[in-house]
Amino acid sequence: MTAPEFPIIYWRDEATKASDSTYDTVEKLLALKSAQCLVFDTKAKQLEHILENGGGDDPVTNEPALNPVGQITVSKQQGRSAVPTLTLEGNCDHIEKAWRNQLRGFSRKAQVEPQYHKRGIIGVYIPASSVLDDFSLDPTNEIGYTMALPTFDWFTPATIVPFRVNLSMGVLALT
C-alpha cells in the first residue's frame, strides 16, 4: 500500500489499535475503516493551518492576595503542567455536510479508552512528503489526542465554511 498524499484526522479503538497488524498503518485503517478517517483530499476539504502550542500558559500559578491595608502580595507555585495542544484550521465546501457531521462525530465519541487508548483516541497523519510530517501522531496506550467540538464559521452567501479543531495531547511521560 502506498501512503496517502493528503492529511487525515482519525480515531482508533480497541478493535483498530496500531499494534494490530490489520490496522498498524494509516493506509490500512483508511482502506478498512474509512468511517474512522477524516481526509483532507480535495479542494472542497482542505487543511490549511496547523498551530502547535507547547503548553498554553506558564506552568507557574500566580496567587495574588490583597491585605487589609490595600497591599497586594503575589505568591508563586511551581508545578502545574502545561498541556500540549494542536489546532487544525481549514476550509470545506458548504455542500460537504456529511464531512462536517463526521468531524462532529469524532469529537462526540468517548475520547479515551480505559484498556488501551488511555491518553486519547485521536491521531493525526501528515504525509511524509510534507515539510510538516513531524505533526503526525498515532494514538497508543502512551500518547494520543482528544478532540474538542469543532468550530465552523460560515456567513451567507459564502460557499466556503472555515473550521477549527482543537486537539489536546495526553501522554504517559512528556519529556
Mean pLDDT across the residues is 88
Indicate how many domains the architecture comprises: 1
Q: Specify the overall morphology.
A: globular
Class from secondary-structure proportions: mainly beta
Question: Sheet with the most strands?
Answer: 5 strands, antiparallel
Distinct helical segment count? 2
**What would you report as the Rg, rounded to the nearest angstrom?**
19 Å
Q: Give the helix proportion (percent range).
A: 10-25%
Strand content: 35-45%
Number of DSSP E strands: 10
Instruction: Note poorly predicted spans.
Output: none
Q: Order of SSEs, N→C?
A: EHEEEEEHEEEE
Distance between the termini: 33 Å
Description of the structure:
With 175 residues, the protein is mainly beta. It has one domain (8-56, 88-171). It has two helices and ten strands. The strands form three sheets. Strands 3, 6, 8, 9 and 10 form a five-stranded antiparallel sheet that branches. A three-stranded antiparallel sheet has the order 2-1-7, with helices on both faces. The longest helix has 12 residues, at 97-108. The protein is globular and about 70 Å long. The model has no long low-confidence stretch (mean pLDDT 88).
Looking at this protein, list some descriptive labels:
single chain; mainly beta; five-stranded antiparallel sheet; 2 helices
